[in-house]
């Protein structure tokens, strides 16, 4: 397929990006894995803007900039349980060329209902920083997503940073999906569980492609709190998941999180990939 004609502006600073976006009809070109140039008359390429590849863990917060590619999360660039969760999730995104070019923030801005990163952001209570002509504003992930492919981002704003609060040491993470092709899962579930003395102190459960916006299964999380993470507690938690198709996936994600929490095992890439070359 040949793309239609469009104008491409190459920006060298955030100010130049914002000036290009000011007409409200220009799209951001980050990894170019979802952008359909024929759907927009102009794109502004942010790939040469210095500093947008920020990836830093500071004071219990992981900060991610707009040019951090998916594949960075395949490595040990992020430590602790957060790095475990991201390694677990990222190897399911598309295939290697998509992960080499595509960006986490591009995926968040695009807001595909079957994308994994938006669910990670909502489930962990991330905060999104948007830069625009009137300065910056910070939006909670849960408020950012307003529907399939729609967000609170105004057309003249650039998503400049996403901040994830760190997961406590010893947190177990799990992920399970139903996917028939390399392009987006039909359904997926992810979970984090933190326990002290065998009793669950914190839990988060996210559902991918359960609704137009990312879903955090709070009712199921509440079932787990203050209780041992036994098979019967997991069964009770999954029973309150409204969409039946997700119950098995949530049970698998929670069981994985429990195993990792108990063994303290780090997530290794080879164990998690669905097959060679993915
Ligand atoms: C074959 C294939 C399989 C895929 N499989 C999956 C999958 O399984 N799971 C999954 O989650 N994704 C999948 N993707 C999508 C992939 O993750 C994309 O990388 C991602 O959706 C968009 O990131 P990007 O950097 O390529 O954004 P681009 O394509 O450059 O931009 C996408 C949109 O986001 C906007 N945008 C980008 N960055 C910003 C920013 N910083 N601020 C404001 N707006 C911005 C653009 O204006 C555009 O509208 C797949 C893609 C392909 C081609």
TrEMBL record:
<dbReference type="GO" id="GO:0016491">
    <property type="term" value="F:oxidoreductase activity"/>
</dbReference>
<dbReference type="InterPro" id="IPR016169">
    <property type="entry name" value="FAD-bd_PCMH_sub2"/>
</dbReference>
<dbReference type="InterPro" id="IPR036318">
    <property type="entry name" value="FAD-bd_PCMH-like_sf"/>
</dbReference>
<dbReference type="InterPro" id="IPR016166">
    <property type="entry name" value="FAD-bd_PCMH"/>
</dbReference>
<feature type="domain" description="FAD-binding PCMH-type">
    <location>
        <begin position="1"/>
        <end position="169"/>
    </location>
</feature>
<dbReference type="GO" id="GO:0071949">
    <property type="term" value="F:FAD binding"/>
</dbReference>
<dbReference type="InterPro" id="IPR016167">
    <property type="entry name" value="FAD-bd_PCMH_sub1"/>
</dbReference>
<dbReference type="InterPro" id="IPR002346">
    <property type="entry name" value="Mopterin_DH_FAD-bd"/>
</dbReference>
<keyword id="KW-0274">FAD</keyword>
<dbReference type="InterPro" id="IPR051312">
    <property type="entry name" value="Diverse_Substr_Oxidored"/>
</dbReference>
<keyword id="KW-0285">Flavoprotein</keyword>
<dbReference type="Pfam" id="PF03450">
    <property type="entry name" value="CO_deh_flav_C"/>
</dbReference>
<protein>
    <submittedName>
        <fullName>Carbon monoxide dehydrogenase</fullName>
    </submittedName>
</protein>
<dbReference type="InterPro" id="IPR005107">
    <property type="entry name" value="CO_DH_flav_C"/>
</dbReference>
<keyword id="KW-0560">Oxidoreductase</keyword>
<dbReference type="InterPro" id="IPR036683">
    <property type="entry name" value="CO_DH_flav_C_dom_sf"/>
</dbReference>
<dbReference type="Pfam" id="PF00941">
    <property type="entry name" value="FAD_binding_5"/>
</dbReference>
């Amino acid at each position: 397929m040949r793309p239609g004609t469009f104008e491409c502006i190459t920006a060298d600073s955030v100010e130049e990006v914002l000036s290009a976006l000011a007409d409200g009809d220009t799209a951001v070109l980050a990894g170019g894995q979802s952008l359909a140039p024929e759907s927009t008359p102009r794109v502004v390429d942010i790939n040469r803007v210095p500093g947008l590849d920020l990836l830093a863990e500071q004071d219990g917060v992981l900060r991610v900039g707009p040019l951090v590619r998916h594949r960075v999360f395949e490595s040990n660039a992020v430590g602790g349980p957060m790095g475990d969760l991201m390694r677990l999730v990222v190897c399911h995104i598309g295939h290697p060329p998509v992960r080499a070019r595509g960006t986490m923030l591009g995926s968040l801005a695009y807001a595909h209902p079957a994308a994994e990163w938006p669910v990670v952001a909502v489930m962990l209570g991330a905060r999104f920083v948007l830069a625009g002509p009137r300065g910056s504003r910070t939006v909670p992930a849960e408020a950012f997503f307003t529907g399939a492919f729609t967000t609170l981002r105004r057309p003249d704003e650039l998503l400049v940073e996403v901040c994830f609060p760190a997961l406590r040491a010893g947190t177990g993470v799990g992920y399970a999906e139903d996917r028939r092709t390399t392009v987006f899962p039909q359904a997926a579930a992810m979970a984090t569980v933190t326990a002290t003395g065998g009793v669950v102190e914190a839990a988060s459960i996210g559902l991918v492609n359960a609704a137009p916006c990312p879903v955090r299964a709070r009712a199921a999380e509440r079932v787990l709190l203050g209780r041992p993470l036994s098979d019967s507690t997991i069964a009770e938690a999954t029973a309150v998941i409204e969409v039946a198709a997700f119950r098995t996936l949530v049970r698998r994600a929670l069981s994985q999180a429990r195993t990792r929490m108990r063994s303290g095992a780090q997530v290794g890439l080879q164990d998690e990939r669905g097959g060679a070359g993915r």
